[in-house]
């Protein structure tokens, strides 16, 4: 569908990319001493004492935001490695030549497109655009050589496309598929079925074209007129004629179902264009219109000063600019009506750069609208459609992830008849991949400074446009990236953290520590992880205890027992200290004297009790070595307050009692219980319980009469079990209609059960073993019937 004249005249503008801008319209930076040539593509420069890396990037590369490239070229991981006198490596020549090649390629692509390359040299211009896009990605990754090479190849492909287009301008050509999204299919008169249509497919008369769900296709005619089939549409190119002498073209399209919009060339070069739907005919003089056909009938809207005449059932309606009509099936067209006004776009604002994602599009609701139609194109004329969604209920749309590049979007409101209204203004946004953390430098306070004034100035520099916070509070950043504020310092060691976040969401954090040291009493704060029974009352399991904590920075500490000094230490620049103190008795009381750098001495006290006794572990009953019960409860007592861990898992100590149920696994189970007290004493006990829930396995059985003619039946059973077999196995024998019972004994040397039973006289030959019960040492039993 067409744009307003002011929009159509809007020329594409070059995008200034974050982290990827072309340096100063290809003007080479002027390199000044003290930089020296290192090779053909790099310069070296020594960082001065009053310089920042951003200043060097501005001076030698023409852009302060290219400081990250200097770090990479200099093989430095972070700006924290920079010191006055650091020799930096500047990729100056590589950047300028790569940027010039990019601009040259972009210009050649634009010239080729103006010459008709999208129609006459689609493959070449597509390759040129693809190479250019890949060169931009290489540039984001600072691959300057790869950027230059790909841009040069792009320029070459664009040149070939330009030459082909110029040569084809004087030759006749059929309609072409110049853009497609999703699944697009075609069927010529001689085809038995549908075939997939690719870009640059030539369409002939009587050829059918259809789009499936979430699919669109653009058909371009020789005079550069364009027809965009939307999703679930089916059209026939009924007539396509070109007169080389008059250089005129006649086209007629039949819309079987679905919808399309057309953007025809200017009236001086426009082809004769007619639209036909079942029982409806439209004569087109407009350069921008939309048509829909479905089971309910046809719909037409006109967006141009040229007329659209709709004829059905012997009656006609002529549509002017921003007018539409509905033709119900078998009826005459309704009176023409004004379509809805264009929506006002809201977000993202025009020309906004979106980082590492696609944006959420938002526009203002239009009174009377029942839905909206959003289009996202890869160019300002929407000849390369990225997304087209018809019938959105809300005045917003999530674009989803998009590749890096430049995009255009517009909206039309849908009225209750389903007619799309006037198109909105066309806004542009860019998607840029930016994963580089922003520049951040802290100037004051200096690292490790000792300050006497509680009011401290905090200043530094970041990237222009970055959000800088101190303790979560936003700071004002000047256009040159500098910031400054004041804070109130606390006595002793202080640490500030400044966070810089660029528009892409990348983050740099920088910390700075300093000491505020008024002449006042030093406070000693002991570490919380020292074993203790209360404030400043510590525990130890050995004759020496390690005491750590914080106090005045750079102070001297002395530990005294009575009047005798037993240990000494010094706090570091952050006030941290650690000292090993010998313990001469079970109970010890010490004084810690702290002498600040100013010479002022203050003291504090702490106590240490020596406790070497490990907590006891006493079970109510020892665990069984073998059991058939899956759940086992471990009960016992230990030292109140001791920390208990059963197989590495902490369990409750209820005033010296513990009780925990363990779910055993088949086979050997190791049970380990450890108890530790606050002093660090540990006692560990281990047991092993084997769980066997499987009954014995009957391997074979035998019953035979005893020799010597006695009425005795000898019974033998062979069985297996992982836990060991029980000594006795009850069995039954059937003899002469009677059931006789007996017990077998396990012969461990023979590894089988053996026994005899006396049977009634005359029943010996028919006597047979009928049942045996086997049990294992774990208590598992099973009765086997023997036939």
List the defining traits of the structure above.
Immunoglobulin-like; 787 residues; seven-stranded antiparallel β-sheet; 60 strands; 12% helix; single chain
Description:
- It is a single chain.
- This protein has 7 helices and 60 strands.
- The chain has 787 residues and is mainly β.
- It folds into 7 domains: 8-168, no CATH class; 175-338, Jelly Rolls (Sandwich); 345-432, Immunoglobulins (Immunoglobulin-like), CATH 2.60.40; 440-516, Immunoglobulin-like, CATH 2.60.40; 525-610, Immunoglobulins (Immunoglobulin-like, Sandwich); 617-691, Sandwich (Immunoglobulin-like), CATH 2.60.40.10; 697-785, Immunoglobulins (Immunoglobulin-like), CATH 2.60.40.
- The chain has a 17-stranded mixed sheet that branches.
- The longest helix has 25 residues, at 144-168.
- It is flat.
Helix and strand topology:
Elements: H1 5-8, E1 36-37, E2 43-46, H2 53-61, H3 67-73, E3 87-90, H4 92-114, H5 117-120, H6 122-140, H7 144-168, E4 175-181, E5 184-187, E6 195-196, E7 202-203, E8 207-211, E9 216-220, E10 226-229, E11 234-243, E12 248-263, E13 272-277, E14 280-284, E15 288-294, E16 297-302, E17 308-312, E18 315-319, E19 323-328, E20 337-338, E21 345-347, E22 352-355, E23 360-363, E24 371-377, E25 385-392, E26 396-398, E27 405-414, E28 427-432, E29 440-444, E30 450-451, E31 455-462, E32 467-470, E33 473-475, E34 482-488, E35 492-501, E36 507-516, E37 525-526, E38 532-534, E39 537-540, E40 544-550, E41 556-561, E42 564-570, E43 576-582, E44 587-595, E45 601-610, E46 617-619, E47 626-627, E48 631-638, E49 643-646, E50 649-651, E51 657-663, E52 667-676, E53 682-691, E54 697-705, E55 712-720, E56 728-735, E57 738-747, E58 752-758, E59 768-775, E60 781-785
Parallel strand pairs: 12-13, 22-28, 30-36, 39-45, 47-53
Antiparallel strand pairs: 1-2, 2-3, 4-7, 4-9, 5-6, 5-8, 8-11, 9-10, 10-12, 11-12, 12-15, 13-14, 14-17, 15-16, 16-19, 17-18, 19-20, 21-23, 23-26, 24-25, 24-27, 27-28, 29-31, 31-34, 32-33, 32-35, 35-36, 37-40, 38-39, 40-43, 41-42, 41-44, 44-45, 46-48, 48-51, 49-50, 49-52, 52-53, 54-55, 55-58, ...
